[in-house]
Amino acid sequence: MAITLALLVGWAVPVLMAVACVVIARHFYPRGQRLWAGLAGSAAAIGLPVLVLIGLRGADGLHARLGELGPFVAIVLFAAASLVAPAALLWIRIRYGNRP
Asked: Structure pTM?
C-alpha cells in the first residue's frame, strides 16, 4: 500500500510542477516570452524526471545497496527532479528580469 501511495504522489509531482511552470510563466514573464517559458518549464518538469529514471535503470549496484528502500529512493529522486524546472524559471526571471 505504501509503495502505491508513493507512486501516485511521485507521478503527480511532475504534473503539478508543469502546471506551476505555466502559472509562473503567466504571471512573471512579459507577453512575448510567456509561451516559450511555459513550454520550456513544462517540458523540463516532465523530461528531467524521465531522464532520472532512465539513469537509474542502468544502476544495478545502486539497487543492490539500497535493498528494499530502492523504489522509494527512486520515487523521491523522480519527484525532486521535477522541482528544478519551476525553480529555474523563477531564478531566470529574477536574474535577467530587467533586460529587454
From this structure: 0.80
